[in-house]
C-alpha cells in the first residue's frame, strides 16, 4: 500500500512528465485502434445426412455382411475435406485476390498512418529477405495463409452438423466467401462419390446401343422396300417349292391322281395351269384311245375319226397354251429366286448387325439396372446447407470506444508506473553519489566509503 501511495505522490509531484507519458501512450493507443479495422464474422451450418444402410450410428452395431462406417468417421472425413488446401485455394482463385482487399480509409490521418505502416513493413521485409533472415512470401501465399487462419471449421458434438465460420475485415467478404466455399465443397463431395458419373456412363452406352439397333433395323427396312420382301426365308422356301412343282408339272412327272397336288397346282399358273393341264392330258389320252378304237371300226376319213382328231387337236392346243403359261410362270419364279439369293448376303449381314445390337442393348440395360441397384445399396452421403451464410451487421469483439477507454486506462497506469520508477531510480542514484563525496572529519580528509544501505520507498521523503 505504501508503494502505491509513493507512485501516486510521484505522479502528483511531477505532473509534466506524467501528462507527457499519458498523452503519448494514449495517442498511440488511439492510432492503433483506428488502424485496426473491425472484424466481421459470418457462419453457416452443413448437415451431413448418412442415415443409410452403409453407415452405423452405433459402434455396437456390427454387420457381418460388410464393413460399416461410423458416424464420427464420416463427420471427421467431411471436416478434413473442408480443411483441405485445394478447396481453400480454389475458392480464393474463384473470388479473386481483389475481393479480400481492405477498403480504403476515409480519414486523412488514418490514410497517412496506414501508408507509413505499409512502407515500414515493406522495408522490413526487404531487409530481412536481403539478409536471408526470412523467406520471401508472395502476396497470394500471404492471402491464403490469412484466409486459412480466419476460417474456422468444427463439428457440433452429438450432431450431424458441421459449423463453418469466417472472419474478415470487411462486411461483404465473409458471407460471399462462405457461399462460394460451400458450393465448391458440395461439388467436391459429389465428384468424390461418383454417384452422378457412373449411371450416366451406362445410360450413354444404352443410348448408343439403341441407336445402333435402330440403324440396323432401318437398313433391313430399306432392303425390304428395295427387294419387295416381307420374309426372306419363308418367301425363298415358297418360291423354291413352286418351282419344283411347276417343273414336275411341265415334265409330266406330277402325280395327277393325288388331290393335294391338284389343289396346289390349281393356282400355280393362272386359269390354264394346275389341274386343267392334268385334265387336258387325261382328255388327250382318252381321245387317243378312242381314236385307236375308231380306226378299227371306221376309216380315217370318216366323220367319227375326224371328230375325234379335231377334239385331240383342240385339247393339244389348249395344253400347249397352258404349258407356255407354266413356263412363263416358272421363268418369273426362277428370276425371283435369283433376286432372293442375291439379297440373302445383304440380309445375313443386316441380321448379324441386328443380333449384335440387340445383344449389346440388352447387356447394357441389365448392367445399368444392376448398377442402379448397387448404388442404392451403397453408402450415400447427402450434404445439405441447413443454415446459409449469415450476413453480419456489427463487428465482433470490442467496439472502438471500449478499446480507446481501455487504452486510456492502460496509458494512465503506465504513466504512473513510469513516473514512480523514474523518481525511485533518481533517489537511489543520488544516494550513491552522496556516499562517494568527501565528508568533513578530523584533518579534512574524506571519510572512507563504508558501503550502501537499502532505502525503502516508505523511508524516503521528497523535498520540493
Automatic annotation (TrEMBL):
Residues 17-95 form the Polysaccharide chain length determinant N-terminal domain. The chain crosses the membrane at residues 16-35, 401-425. It is found in: Cell membrane. One of its GO terms (cellular component) is plasma membrane. Pfam families: Wzz. Keywords: Cell membrane, Membrane, Transmembrane, Transmembrane helix. Gene3D superfamilies: 1.10.287.1490. The keyword Membrane applies. The keyword Cytoplasm does not apply. It comes from the Bacteria. Its main location: membrane. It is a multi-pass membrane protein. InterPro entries: Bact_polysacc_biosynth/exp, LPS_length_determ_N. This is Polysaccharide chain length determinant N-terminal domain-containing protein. It comes from Lichenifustis flavocetrariae.
Amino acid at each position: 500500500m505504501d508503494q502505491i501511495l509513493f507512485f501516486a505522490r510521484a505522479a502528483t509531484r511531477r505532473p509534466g512528465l506524467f501528462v507527457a507519458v499519458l498523452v503519448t501512450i494514449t495517442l498511440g493507443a488511439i492510432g492503433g485502434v483506428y488502424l485496426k479495422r473491425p472484424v466481421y464474422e459470418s457462419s453457416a451450418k452443413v448437415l451431413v445426412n448418412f442415415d443409410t444402410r452403409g453407415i452405423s450410428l452405433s459402434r455396437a452395431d456390427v454387420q457381418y455382411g460388410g464393413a460399416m462406417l461410423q458416424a464420427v468417421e464420416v463427420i471427421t472425413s467431411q471436416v478434413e475435406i473442408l480443411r483441405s488446401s485445394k478447396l481453400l485455394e480454389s475458392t480464393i482463385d474463384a473470388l479473386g485476390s481483389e475481393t479480400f482487399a481492405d477498403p480504403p480509409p476515409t480519414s486523412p490521418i488514418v490514410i497517412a498512418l496506414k501508408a507509413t505502416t505499409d512502407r515500414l513493413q515493406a522495408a522490413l521485409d526487404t531487409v530481412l529477405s536481403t539478409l536471408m533472415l526470412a523467406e520471401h512470401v508472395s502476396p497470394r501465399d500471404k492471402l491464403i495463409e490469412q484466409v486459412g487462419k480466419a476460417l474456422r471449421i468444427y463439428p457440433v458434438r452429438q450432431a450431424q452438423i458441421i459449423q463453418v465460420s469466417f472472419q474478415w475485415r470487411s462486411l461483404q467478404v465473409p458471407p460471399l466467401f462462405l457461399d462460394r466455399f460451400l458450393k465448391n465443397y458440395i461439388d467436391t463431395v459429389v465428384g468424390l462419390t461418383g454417384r452422378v458419373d457412373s449411371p450416366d456412363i451406362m445410360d450413354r452406352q444404352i443410348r448408343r446401343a439403341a441407336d445402333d439397333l435402330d440403324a440396323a433395323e432401318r437398313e433391313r427396312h430399306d432392303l425390304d422396300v428395295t427387294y419387295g420382301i416381307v420374309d426372306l426365308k419363308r418367301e425363298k422356301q415358297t418360291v423354291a417349292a413352286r418351282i419344283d412343282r411347276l417343273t414336275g408339272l411341265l415334265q409330266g412327272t406330277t402325280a395327277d391322281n393325288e388331290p393335294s397336288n391338284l389343289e396346289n397346282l390349281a393356282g400355280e399358273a393362272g386359269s390354264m395351269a394346275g389341274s386343267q393341264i392334268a385334265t387336258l392330258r387325261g382328255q388327250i389320252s382318252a381321245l387317243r384311245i378312242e381314236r385307236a378304237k375308231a380306226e378299227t371300226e371306221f376309216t380315217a376319213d370318216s366323220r367319227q375319226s375326224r371328230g375325234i382328231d379335231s377334239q385331240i387337236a383342240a385339247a393339244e392346243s389348249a395344253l400347249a397354251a397352258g404349258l407356255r403359261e407354266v413356263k412363263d410362270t416358272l421363268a418369273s419364279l426362277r428370276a425371283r429366286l435369283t433376286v432372293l439369293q442375291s439379297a440373302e448376303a445383304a440380309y445375313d449381314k443386316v441380321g448379324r448387325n441386328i443380333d449384335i445390337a440387340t445383344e449389346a442393348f440388352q447387356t447394357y440395360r441389365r448392367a445399368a439396372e444392376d448398377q442402379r441397384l448397387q448404388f442404392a445399396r451403397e453408402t450415400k452421403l447427402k450434404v445439405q446447407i441447413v443454415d446459409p451464410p449469415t450476413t453480419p451487421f456489427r463487428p465482433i469483439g470490442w467496439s472502438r470506444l471500449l478499446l480507446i477507454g481501455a487504452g486510456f486506462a492502460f496509458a494512465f497506469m503506465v504513466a504512473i508506473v513510469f513516473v514512480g520508477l523514474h523518481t525511485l531510480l533518481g533517489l537511489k542514484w543520488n544516494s550513491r553519489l552522496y556516499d562517494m563525496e568527501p565528508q568533513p572529519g578530523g584533518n579534512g580528509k574524506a571519510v572512507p566509503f563504508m558501503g550502501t544501505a537499502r532505502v525503502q520507498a516508505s523511508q524516503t521523503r521528497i523535498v520540493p
